[in-house]
Predict the structure.
Amino acid sequence: MTNTDLSAAPGPGASPPSSRRGARLGRRMRSLGGLLLSLALTLLGLLLVTFIIGRVMPIDPVLKVVGERATQAQYEAARLAMGLDKPLWQQFLVYMGEVLRGDFGRSISTGHPVAQDLRRVFPATFELAALGTLIGVCVGVPLGVVAAARRGGWIDQIARVVALVGYSMPIFWLGLMGLLLFYGILGWVGGPGRQGIVYDGMVPEMTGMILVDSLLAGDWGAFRDAFSHIILPASLLGYFSLAYVSRMTRSFMLEQLSAEYITTARVKGLSERRVVWAHAFRNILVPLITVIALSFGSLLEGSVLTEIVFSWPGLGQYITKALLAADMNAVLGGTVLIGTCFVALNILSDVLYRTLDPRAK
Amino acid sequence: MTETTRAWLLSDAPQTRRQARMGALYQGWLTFRANKLAMLGLVILLALLFVAGFAPWLSPQNPFAQNLADRLQPPSAAHWLGTDALGRDILSRLIHGSRITLFIVGTVALVAPVIGLFVGTVAGFAGGWVDQVLMRTTDIFLAFPKLILALAFVAALGPGIGNAVLALAVTSWPPYARLARAETLTIRNADYIAAARLQGAGPLRLLIGHIWPLCVSSLIVRVALDMAGIILSAAGLGFLGLGAQPPMPEWGAMISDGRTYILDFWWVAAMPGLAIFIVSLAFNLLGDGLRDVLDPKGGAE
């Protein structure tokens, strides 16, 4: 899960410069149109895949609804009501219409509509992944830059080991070990879950992200408590993000540092710090945005295992619990949500890339 | 190795095709051997193969034998790595579990690149709408987060080791397809392909005989680098209870077993995690070394 595939990253599109503004605008509209089309196609494919997965399962969805002791007539009535007698393509259209309206059906295990459940659990995962990405970027980017600037030096070696270990470590195991050390032995952080019992339900819910909510409510005790609970899982996710971000930063920086304009800057007599940070680093900002977006996406995914370890009531735990209860609506709803986030992040980074990098027009 | 074989292998003017091929292999080996970390990875993996091959003879105890009087024992002379909640010897379970790990990784690493090779080369070679359709499909699979898709597949098919392998294979082929397509596009218009075509070779023959062999080396590098990821995903599925079912000593599932006791009996979860870490680290080291040998383009970084 940490090996996020970079082939999804957009490359700089090379097209000859045009002096006519109209032509440029037209091309941009066209490329935006192409982008939207590919977005729509990908989302359609996403729905198709989840639909197929939902249909091949060996569990009879009708039986799940009516129960084992239903009569044949009741069974048939439920089957008709669920639209399972229609041809598959019609069922798919119905499914697509429902999903587009935000209706994922009802979850069997919680009894609520899946969409409502997802709204409840998503902020927890978002909060965790966002803080993880923040940690990963704040540590990973400087580490990568320094590693590239002092290539072969001891910081570079450390960065290499950190990344290698990050790529080889099972995240859920590291989580357990962290829990053992920092919670069990040292007692530095809060245990599993998002809040201590004392603060449970004390903060008025606004965004669903407890750190933000407790700040809005001005409740410092609740904030400290929530922070002591989130810091360990977020650092873990941050570590995995760091492994990826620092490697990418390093290779982007190496590419820039070998360019001729850097030699020019050095010949001009600029200080090394200025060469690295003001010249080379500014040029990697745009590709770095793509990397950060992709890393955030992979943390949303990586949070599945982390949430289980830390009993974090987020999307990952919701999906896994639903899985074990064979609650297909909930599983597919969660899958569609995470898939959509992935696609949205890809598109977002693509758009940012195009708008920010003058070479990619 | 004697001096004459060495000279034969390193000869600048190979007399036969076989000598040239062996010479190239030997050169590659020399490059690989110079990379100490990659050698370490290779040694660890050879040891793993050995352990898996001779598991019944190497394991000190029966991995399934429960002994409730001896449950949750810390590491000691009798049980080097301690015992789990059912009094089973953790070392023996790890040794037997290496077979499961190798089975999963081996199968996925065999199936996924083959699917990818097929899809990618056909797309790149055929071009036109075939290319469009195949690559669109690939993009859709790439858009899914891998683990989530695998979870959904296993949920639909039911937990079990076979389904876990299937789910991992289905979710890991798209990058290979992209890679194979890119390679195909660069060699499609090469002169030697045109020459083969003029000799009357059909598309199938061109594909299998002339394009596939050239895609293989970059695919192997990619597979070697992905192995660790496959191990971690498989362990993740096991940890969630969706891979190998009890009482099978799958490493991820063993961590899950130890999760309940983590604060008091840390070794139950710690040992299998260490095993996973060591093996995937070895694969990463090996992959890096192989990349330097087989794919000089991507070398150094």
In short: Chain A has two domains: 22-100, 118-360. Chain A has 13 helices and no strands. Residues 1-19 of chain A have pLDDT under 50 and may be disordered. The CA atoms of residues 210 and 226 of chain A lie 7 Å apart.
